[in-house]
Amino acid sequence: MSLTSNTPRAVLMAALLGAAAVPALAQAAPAKPMAAPLSTASDATDIHSYAKPKIARVTHVDLDLTADFTGRKMVGTAALDLKLAPGAKEVVLDSKGLVVKSITNAKGQPLEWTLGAADPHLGAPLTVTLNGAKRIVIAYESAPDGAALQWLSPSQTAGKAKPYLFSQGEAILNRTWIPTQDSPGVRQTWTARIVAPEGLKAVMSAEQLTPDGEPVAGGRAYRFRMDKPVAPYLIAIAIGDLTFQPLGQRTGVYTEPSVMKATAWELADVEKMVEAAEKLYGPYRWGRYDLLVLPPSFPFGGMENPRLTFATPTIIAGDRSLVSLVAHELAHSWSGNLVTNATWADFWLNEGFTVYFENRIMESLYGKDTAAMLADLGWTDLHRAIDEAGGPTGPDTRLHIDLTGRDPDDGMTDIPYEKGAAFLRTIEKEVGRERWDAYLRGYFDRHAFQPQTAEGFIADLRTHLFKGDKALERKIDVQGWVYQPGLPENAVHVQSKAFEAVDAQAKAFAAGGAAPLDAWKAWSTAERVRFVGSLPRQLSAERLAAADTAFGLSAQGNSEIRFAWLQLAVANRYEPAVPSLEQFLTGQGRRKFVAPLFVSLWGQGDWGQSIARRIYAQSRPLYHAVTRETVDKTVK
């Protein structure tokens, strides 16, 4: 997943990519489940799931659902194949807000079931008495306010003519539309038959078996198949007025017809990124690699759903300046999708590895200077995140985090992303890049399609990298990196020489110097974000106006630069920027931008709070539940 924290990251993470068109097959043949073991590590118990997978676990899911746009719900069945321990009499599933109508075995015979007490974060356990069944069929419907699904009116789309639906499953939201064991450690294969209204196209994070759909009562049926076991949060769907354009032999983009030309032009380098990633850490194992660029309310930069990564339109800047962000979601095809954190306590195993891998892709394609700038921006973000987490002794600055009694969303800060990446860079420095790359490639091979924990990763390091070298392990301080708060002293800080000149220009301009127009024109997005971010948080109205006029900051089409500018403007209560702020907050719902701006406004007392309340009254209905729930904590 692309970064969702409260900090700007310029060019780096915003992400894309995923699934799509393949030759049509007659219909979805049942996927034969590919074996996916549970982690046997002592730290593999998932406190965010009611499931008891060692007793009874889901191995495969068959969905047969109709999208009811009028009722704003998915209606149909989920058939689950189970692997049972000897003597298992029941299976426990995760659900949240689901209306269960009936549960039967494969022969249609009713099974007893109970829905337990609901927890605000986890939902309620759905317990089914099996009576010997190894396959159960659940007839149900999702609730209109199910957090994973956002139903958009035509006015919320680019084309303004047809409705739209998309899902966001990470971390534990898919239980609001799929009754299964919603734990990243319980990998599942799946198929789906989705009935969408006529004139709308369904896409999912799986192989498309009927790209054009099949005519049925009520619309068209689209069939999908994922024959590789994936974490259930990676099951994703979108339905809308969608068209497709290839970008390469195995890459392409879906989006609305009215924005396709600009979108496809922006994403021209996707195929090159896949090739660069494969040269680093081995073959891409998911078939196609397409992306879906969504309407503006999508809450993240990108979500790495296999074969079909969902992406925010805020990356479409018109100058290809933000498309390097695709490297993050692409890297997830290895770190996160191929090898997945078994629990949300080890989110860093997904995101820290991915930030590191992303930067290596960027270095391969665009050179060391570009990669250094991105890593340096990440270092700044990391220190800001440590401060926000209570300083270097704050418990949430650990990589292996304690989320007991908390929503896993609470752990999705810059810490797992940037501290995780710094940890891997530190290992690379000590063992050398050649040895480290060989290890990583082997790591992805050894643990492909399996869950992983901190304990499991450390054991793998000892066996396949350290090989009994206790001195090397102590020098790196593996245990300290993973389990202790703060940032170890040996952390590698990749510094960009280009930023030295940028910082000097920012200092001179803040002191009253002329706007560095020639330099600005030559700078990359990373350098421009660094310049705006380096300006003092307290700046005169005259200097703010000079910057806005010289660089067109309030009218910026580049979302990263616009965000950095608005943060500076709010910090100074700069009234001329308020119209730009309002347009930005009501025109997109990316939590990375939205949440910190509301926090900044709220911190400005009566001035900012009145603006925040007014804007949020307009924008809240437009935001996805993920963004709403975060901003609700700020705007009282």
Topology:
Elements: E1 56-68, E2 73-84, E3 90-95, E4 99-105, E5 113-115, E6 124-129, E7 135-141, E8 149-152, E9 164-167, E10 188-196, E11 201-204, E12 207-208, E13 214-216, E14 219-230, E15 237-240, E16 243-246, E17 251-255, H1 260-266, H2 270-281, E18 289-293, E19 302-303, E20 308-311, H3 326-331, E21 339-341, H4 348-366, H5 368-388, H6 414-431, H7 433-446, E22 450-452, H8 454-466, H9 470-476, H10 478-483, H11 498-510, H12 517-522, H13 525-534, H14 541-551, H15 559-571, H16 578-587, H17 591-602, H18 605-619, H19 625-632
Helix pairs in contact: 2-4, 4-5, 4-6, 5-6, 6-7, 11-13, 13-15, 15-16, 15-17, 16-18, 17-18, 17-19
Binding site for Zn(2+): 328, 332, 351
Pfam families: Leuk-A4-hydro_C (PF09127), Peptidase_M1 (PF01433), Peptidase_M1_N (PF17900)
Subcellular location: Cytoplasm
Describe the structure.
InterPro entries: Aminopeptidase_N-like_N, Aminopeptidase_N-like_N_sf, ARM-type_fold, LTA4H_cat, M1_LTA-4_hydro/amino_C_sf, M1_LTA4H, Peptidase_M1, Peptidase_M1_C. Residues 1-28 form the signal peptide. The chain contains 19 helices and 22 strands. The protein is globular, with a radius of gyration of 24 Å. Strand 1 and strand 2 (73-84) form a beta hairpin. It has four domains: 49-144 and 169-229, Immunoglobulin-like, CATH 2.60.40; 242-333, Zincin-like (2-Layer Sandwich); 334-483, Neutral Protease Domain 2 (Neutral Protease, domain 2); 498-633, Serine Threonine Protein Phosphatase 5, Tetratricopeptide repeat.
